């Protein structure tokens, strides 16, 4: 089955045109490599209402299957992506960010500093990723196979072969 994707970059400087967004295009390329059709891209500032509005639009209006955010997951006072995401998701999926952080920690001890969350809104899966292109790539690739199975489960009316062998 084929699915749709959206990539939302959260960056004050990117929004103002002061920094080139490289993580967003990198995530789009990875999504497409996995057969996802990227239907939506946006760059928004680190503002909770802007982040919430984009997530709700992608999930509720556009009915995007996989919504990836990049940026706003660190320790800066403006890094509020996880908090904004938590206000729109209906069910958290803690294993996804746990797996990403574990994979990151095998690369750098700083991998534990990412505060990203993931969750489900309707039939959409929302995943927060770091703003660094390298970290965003490493994180999404560490869970992409599992995410694809998760999308199958979200799209199904039953178990989506949950007892099947993992790839």
Give the topology.
Elements lengths: L3 E7 L1 H4 L7 H11 L3 E8 L3 H14 L4 E5 L10 H6 L4 E2 L2 H13 L10 E4 L2 E6 L3 H23 L12
Describe the protein in words.
With 167 residues, this protein is an alpha/beta fold. The chain has a single domain, classed as 3-Layer(aba) Sandwich (Molybdenum Cofactor Biosythetic Enzyme, Chain A). The chain is 43% helix and 19% strand. The chain contains six helices and six strands, in the order E-H-H-E-H-E-H-E-H-E-E-H. The protein has helices at 12-15, 23-33, 48-61, 81-86, 95-107, 133-155, and strands at residues 4-10, 37-44, 66-70, 91-92, 118-121, 124-129. Strands 2-1-3-6-5-4 form a six-stranded mixed β-sheet, with helices on both faces. Strand 5 and strand 6 form a beta hairpin. It is globular and about 45 Å long. It starts with a strand and ends in a 12-residue tail after the last helix. The mean pLDDT is 95.
The domain tally reads 1
- Order of H and E elements: EHHEHEHEHEEH
Number of distinct beta strands: 6
Low-confidence stretches: none
In CATH, the homologous superfamily goes by the name MoaB/Mog-like domain
CATH hierarchy, class: Alpha Beta
Find the structural class using helix and strand composition.
alpha/beta
* Portion in strands: 15-25%
Summarize the amount of helix as a percent range. 40-55%
Compute the CA-based radius of gyration. Answer: 15 Å
User: What's the N-to-C terminus distance?
Assistant: 16 Å
Average pLDDT reading: 95
The strand order across the widest sheet is 2-1-3-6-5-4
Counting DSSP H or I runs of 4 or more residues, the number of helices is 6
CATH architecture annotation: 3-Layer(aba) Sandwich
Indicate the overall shape: globular
Largest beta-sheet details: 6 strands, mixed
Provide the CATH topology: Molybdenum Cofactor Biosythetic Enzyme, Chain A
């Amino acid at each position: 089955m084929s699915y749709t994707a959206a990539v939302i970059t959260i960056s004050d400087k990117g929004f103002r045109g002061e920094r080139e967004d490289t993580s967003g295009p990198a995530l789009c390329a990875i999504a497409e490599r996995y057969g996802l059709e990227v239907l939506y891209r946006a760059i928004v500032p680190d503002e909770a209402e802007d982040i919430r509005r984009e997530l709700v639009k992608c999930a509720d209006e556009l009915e995007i299957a996989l919504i990836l955010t990049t940026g706003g997951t660190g320790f800066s006072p403006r890094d509020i992506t996880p908090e904004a995401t938590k206000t729109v998701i209906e069910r958290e999926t803690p294993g996804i960010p746990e797996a990403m952080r574990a994979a990151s920690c095998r690369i750098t001890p700083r991998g534990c500093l990412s505060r990203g969350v993931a969750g489900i809104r309707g039939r959409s899966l929302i995943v927060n990723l770091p703003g660094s292109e390298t970290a965003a790539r490493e994180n999404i690739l560490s869970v992409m196979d599992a995410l694809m199975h998760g999308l199958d489960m979200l799209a199904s009316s039953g178990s989506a072969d949950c007892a099947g062998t993992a790839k």
